[in-house]
Amino acid sequence: MMPFSYSKPVEVSQAINLAGPTTRFIAGGTNLVDLMKENVVRAEALIDINGLPLRDIEETPDGGLLIGALVSNADLAWHPLIESRYPLLSQAILAGASAQLRNMASTGGNLLQRTRCYYYYDAGTPCNKRVPGSGCPARDGLNRIHAILGASDACVATHPSDMCVALAALEAVVHVQGRAGKRRIEFADFHRLPGDAPQRDNQLADDELVTAIELPASGFARHSHYLKVRDRASYAFALVSVAAALELDGDVIRDVRLALGGVAHKPWRDKAVEQALKGRSVSHEAFTEAAEAMLRDAQPLAHNGFKIKLARRAIVRALSDAAVGGNA
Ligand code: SF4
Q1: Which atom of ligand 1 is closest in space to residue 130's alpha carbon?
Q2: pTM for the full model?
Q3: 3-state helix vs strand vs coil in the chain, percent to 5
Q4: Could you say which DSSP state residue 261 is in?
Q5: Which of 56, 68, 118, 319 is the most buried (most CB within 10 A)?
């Protein structure tokens, strides 16, 4: 680990005035500290944001919730308003990491965690995400956990978060603040596909800080389900995960959200697939067609072709469980 300076501002404006290309904000540190120890991330200065007033969960005038970026993953998952109105989010958070990590990890930091690609964490190998232009050994190497959708020649990594898959399905909005002011980013636009710049995971500028996550009023509380498929029962990243949410009128689908984790560089949605489900009746046939359509552009690598069949089955099961009241 290289030497770094440390500061702990108490106002958001102070924090963003200290930020730049060689600095990092730190909250729970559950990913960043590991990356710095292994020299994967080399920061000259750490800006500890734990003194900032970003720990509240407030109701918004339009019926949603505003979640401060420093609310811990554990506090968020067990918050009564999240459990009752957004059980999909609670389920997704509790599917991730371990209890100890969820106690430390922040809501804002969860959005910013880096891929778990083996090569990214090994500073002795090339990696376009770590050292742009150095190559992507995962493409022809060990790629069992890698992407089947939205990848590029430069990078086939996946986004590791469970929470973000639920936030994508719920159409959350990310509040950020930088020296140019505040802005709101739709969740679907927050994370990037790798393209030819995989070193950039999201749309944040160097001086921008995530201050809050806003949830809209609708949490699909009666009919939603988060399904995570992984190599072991806990403390493992998703091979495939599905956030499924339905609004039903009898057995007719009035609204639907479907987001996948573990398959792409960002939580994966396809609004055309969701649109095609609206107005149809709940059925195995309708859900199977949606799953086929969701995976139609999947491109497997040498070792991850199993994810296509796995994702199809997981989509059908998650939608089926949501339909019968997966969280009701
Ligand atoms: Fe690096 Fe991305 Fe290739 Fe992994 S998949 S080695 S993160 S460039």
Answers
A1: 1
A2: 0.98
A3: 30, 20, 50
A4: E
A5: 319
Question: Closest ligand 1 atom, CA of 128?
Answer: 8
119 lines ligand 1 (CB under 6 A): yes
Confirm if 120 and 127 have CB atoms less than 8 A apart: yes
Share of the chain above pLDDT 90, in %: 98
| Per-residue pLDDT at 201 exceeds 60 | yes
Closest CA to 6 of 31, 39, 33, 34: 33
> Residue 231 CB: number of other CB atoms within 10 A?
10
DSSP 156-216: ------SHHHHHHHHT-EEEEEETTEEEEEEHHHHB---TT-TT--BS--TT-EEEEEEE-
d(CA 298, ligand 1 centre) in Å:
18
Q: Which pLDDT does position 326 carry in this prediction?
A: 62
How far, in Å, is the centroid of ligand 1 from the Cα of 268?
18
pLDDT tens figures, 98-156: 999 999 999 999 999 999 999 999 999 999 999 999 999 999 999 999 999 999 999 99
252 three-class SS: strand
pLDDT at 234: 87
Architecture of domain 224-323: 2-Layer Sandwich (3.30)
Residue 26: C-alpha distances to residues 2, 48, 274 (Å): 16, 5, 37
**Beta strands in the chain, from DSSP E residues, in sequence order:** 5-7, 23-26, 45-48, 57-59, 65-68, 173-178, 181-186, 209-215, 224-229, 240-249, 252-261
Mutation test residue for ligand 1: of 120, 125, 196, the one with most atoms within 8 Å of CB: 120
CA distance 226 to 318: 7
**pLDDT reading at 328 higher than 60:** no
Q: Ligand 1 within 6 A of 127 CB? A: yes
* pLDDT value at residue 204: 98
Q: From 122, 143, 156, give the residue whose CB has the most ligand 1 atoms within 8 Å, as the site to mutate.
A: 156
Verify whether ligand 1 is closer than 6 Å to residue 117 (CB atom): yes
